[in-house]
């Protein structure tokens, strides 16, 4: 399903000879985009029919609204957003402007693509472990068909689900000894909230026990411990809700006002 299986030979990763249009890679990406399209369609239909788990999704929508209107400090006061804020899910600050402009459908589509990308990570891990392309393809396909992941994508928005594919990419970057990719994924995972620290610790222990990824395990556990300490000391959320934060609404208004002012300066004749 994920790979073109008519040819058992595949260009090795890092050889620089492959491209997205290569049949085997195109097949894998096609399944990712198809998964995103199907799951997003089902999620939008469900949402349009008002089949919504009120507390969870309404909490995120309320948080997005408060952030874009410049009321981030009220996240801890609103009962719908208090749990989200207390988990230090700073990713909502990045998603809020996008959702306010592109809508809820974009949020569903983005979530589906992030989860589907885990199939690509699994396939690449299979290559590193020297599995047959057919075996890697079957494992990746089973990942896409895993019911809990599909259900979590279709029903509302759950950023914690993103931890599944991100952990797979974290492991792949560690096995490839790619520090930059490893660091980016590790930092991004902290945006999913404090609950993912448990998964990070277990992943770090697994990397630590592997002789080829010992230092990646040390870096993982050290960074996770630092983030956990900052989160429980209350330093993470205030950083993202500092008093001088410029809201999206204020920024758009300033752009509109500047444009109106420049038009008046150009159109007003000089009487001096």
Task: Please give the structural blueprint.
Blueprint: H1 23-48, H2 54-68, H3 82-86, H4 91-102, H5 104-128, H6 133-144, H7 147-154, H8 163-175, H9 179-190, H10 197-209, H11 214-232, H12 236-240, H13 248-267
InterPro entries: STSV1_Orf64 (IPR018650)
Protein name: Glycosyltransferase RgtA/B/C/D-like domain-containing protein
Transmembrane segments: 26-45, 90-123, 157-175, 182-209, 215-242
In short:
The protein is built from 13 helices and no strands. The chain has 272 residues and is mostly helical. The termini are far apart.
Describe the overall structure.
With 272 residues, the chain is mainly α. It has one domain (23-267). Helix content is 68%, strand content 0%. The chain is built from 13 helices and no strands. The chain has helices at residues 23-48, 54-68, 82-86, 91-102, 104-128, 133-144, 147-154, 163-175, 179-190, 197-209, 214-232, 236-240, 248-267. The protein starts with 22 loop residues before the first helix and ends in a 5-residue tail after the last helix.
């Amino acid at each position: 399903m994920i790979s073109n299986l008519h040819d058992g030979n595949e260009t090795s990763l890092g050889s620089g000879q492959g491209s997205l249009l290569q049949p085997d890679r195109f097949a894998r990406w096609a399944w990712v985009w198809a998964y995103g399209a199907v799951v997003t369609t089902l999620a939008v239909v469900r949402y349009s029919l008002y089949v919504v788990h009120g507390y969870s999704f309404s909490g995120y929508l309320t948080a997005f609204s408060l952030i874009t209107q410049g009321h981030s400090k009220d996240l801890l006061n609103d009962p719908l957003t208090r749990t989200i804020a207390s988990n230090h899910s700073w990713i909502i600050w990045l998603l809020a402007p996008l959702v306010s402009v592109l809508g809820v459908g974009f949020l569903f589509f983005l979530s589906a693509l992030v989860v589907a990308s885990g199939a690509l990570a699994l396939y690449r891990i299979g290559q590193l472990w020297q599995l047959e392309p057919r075996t890697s393809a079957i494992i990746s396909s089973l990942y896409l068909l895993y019911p809990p992941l599909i259900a979590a994508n279709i029903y509302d928005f759950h950023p914690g689900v993103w931890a599944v594919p991100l952990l797979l990419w974290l492991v792949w970057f560690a096995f490839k000894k790619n520090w930059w990719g490893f660091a980016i994924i590790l930092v991004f995972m902290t945006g999913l909230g404090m609950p993912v620290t448990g998964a990070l610790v277990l992943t770090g222990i697994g990397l630590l026990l592997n002789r080829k990824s010992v230092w990646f395990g040390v870096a993982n556990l050290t960074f996770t411990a630092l983030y956990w300490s900052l989160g429980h000391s209350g330093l993470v959320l205030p950083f993202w809700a500092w008093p001088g934060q410029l809201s999206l609404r204020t920024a758009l208004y300033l752009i509109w006002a500047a444009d109106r002012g420049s038009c008046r300066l150009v159109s007003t004749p000089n009487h001096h």
